[in-house]
UniProtKB/TrEMBL annotation:
Start and end residues of each D-isomer specific 2-hydroxyacid dehydrogenase catalytic domain: 73-368
Entry binding sites for substrate: 130, 154
InterPro entries reported in the protein's UniProt record: D-isomer_2_OHA_DH_cat_dom, D-isomer_DH_CS, D-isomer_DH_NAD-bd, FDH_NAD-dep, NAD(P)-bd_dom_sf
UniProt protein name: Formate dehydrogenase
Its job: Catalyzes the NAD(+)-dependent oxidation of formate to carbon dioxide. Formate oxidation is the final step in the methanol oxidation pathway in methylotrophic microorganisms. Has a role in the detoxification of exogenous formate in non-methylotrophic organisms.
Any single GO BP term: formate catabolic process
Subunit structure, interactors included: Homodimer.
Catalytic activity: formate + NAD(+) = CO2 + NADH
Site (Important for catalytic activity) location in chain: 292, 340
Pfam families linked: 2-Hacid_dh, 2-Hacid_dh_C
Binding residues for NAD(+): 209-210, 230, 264-268, 290, 316, 340-343
Recorded superkingdom: Eukaryota
Length: 391
């Protein structure tokens, strides 16, 4: 009897091992089948500025070296992540099989209609920051490419920069600082072109998320008037809160001592500030532009500054970017220009890196991208700010 039971136990064990082997073999075949039938995951390309030694600062997320902090997030999900600073041949070589392209206003890769035509797999363009004018939005619409940006991520950063540069111009800061660097001391030379902001008429062209925050920050300076021109009015409550008045563009340029440009770049605003406009502005006006360089006619501005019609010009946006060494704005008198960094403070980089991750997460999981982040989607403009007439 004992022998019979032992034989039965051995037979059961053998049967169990055989069953386990068969199950393991079947599981292996299923896994192989799933692997071969699953489509390849996405290729994501990011074009970011090169920071060099500055990249040792880990919070400098927006540079090529620190990759928006996205590599682990993307690669852990099986996606390919290619990061570069080159905006020309290397980018062109990667585009044909790219599904997602991440760019930034601070080192813009110009996504032209020609590039879109050569990118058959491109489905999503993400701006890490705010401002997607470096993408041909009409071409993106026709190709059914979604364009999204991290709305609101750097509006505070830019608004603060605007106020800083207004004060730098009005108080004649740059020549004063230059005197110190050169070991000079001539108070009269500086003071003869230095004014107070109080009791001046200040206006913004564009009163959206940035323009309105500029107005909020100017209120404590007790300006004589705060004006704005825009395609739509603020609510009465918003106007009352900062004491601002809605006027036409024509009235604004003729009345303001200081003009700040805070509107998007599109067909209607390209070269908006041209010779004709500079002929109409109040003599001695200061202009600050942190929107886009192409809103201002390059050569017309140089002439207006040289003639004194424009007393001073500041901003951080140029066209193209990076600005060539021979760009005339570098050398015109009475300017306070900087490289394009107003919206890429360390605080802003944290916000737009997180926002970019959120857009990617929603896209790959098939969830809707937040409406406020969409610029174009399903072949249509999703943002009123970028609605443009067809060429």
């Amino acid at each position: 009897m004992r022998n019979l039971l032992q034989s039965f136990a051995r037979a059961k064990e053998t049967f169990g091992l055989a069953t386990q082997a068969r199950n393991s073999c079947m599981l292996h075949k299923i896994c192989q089948s799933l692997h071969t039938s699953t489509p390849s995951l996405a290729k994501v390309v990011a074009v970011l500025y090169e920071a060099g030694a500055a990249a040792k600062e880990p919070r400098l997320l927006g540079c090529k070296e620190n990759e928006l902090g996205l590599r682990k997030f993307l690669e852990s999900r099986g996606h390919q992540y290619v990061v570069m600073s080159d905006k020309e041949k290397l980018l062109d070589s990667e585009l044909p099989d790219t599904e997602v392209l991440i760019t930034t206003p601070f080192h813009p890769a110009y996504v032209t209609a020609e590039r879109i035509a050569k990118s058959p797999k491109l489905k999503l363009c993400v701006t890490a920051g705010v401002g997607s004018d470096h993408v041909d939005l009409h071409a993106a619409n026709k190709a059914k490419i979604t364009v999204a940006e991290v709305t609101g991520s750097n509006v505070v950063s830019v608004a603060e920069h605007v106020v800083m540069q207004i004060l730098a111009l009005v108080r004649n800061f740059v020549p004063a600082y230059t005197q110190v660097i050169k070991g000079e001391w001539n108070v009269g030379d500086i003071a003869k072109d230095s004014f107070d902001l109080e009791n001046k008429v200040v206006g913004t062209v564009g009163a959206g998320r940035i323009g309105y925050r500029v107005l909020e920050r100017l209120k404590p300076f007790h300006c004589k008037e705060l004006l704005y021109s825009d395609y739509q009015s603020l609510t009465p409550e918003m106007e009352k809160a900062v004491g601002v008045k809605h006027v036409s563009f024509e009235e604004l340029i003729q009345r303001c001592d200081v003009i700040t440009i805070n509107c998007p770049l599109h067909d209607k605003t390209r070269n908006l500030f041209n010779k004709e406009v500079f002929d109409k502005v109040k003599p001695g006006v200061y202009i600050v532009n942190t929107a886009r360089g192409a809103i201002v006619d390059r050569d017309a501005l140089v002439e207006a500054v040289k003639s004194g019609k424009v007393r001073g010009y500041a901003g951080d946006v140029w066209y193209p970017q990076p600005a060539p060494k021979d760009h005339p704005w570098r050398y015109m008198p009475r300017h306070a220009m900087t490289p394009h960094y107003s919206g890429t403070t360390l605080d802003a980089q944290m916000r737009y890196a997180e926002g970019t991750k959120d857009i990617l997460e929603r896209y790959f999981e098939g969830r809707p991208i937040k409406p406020e982040d969409l610029i174009v989607h399903n072949g249509q403009f999703a943002s009123k700010a970028y609605v443009q007439p067809e060429k």
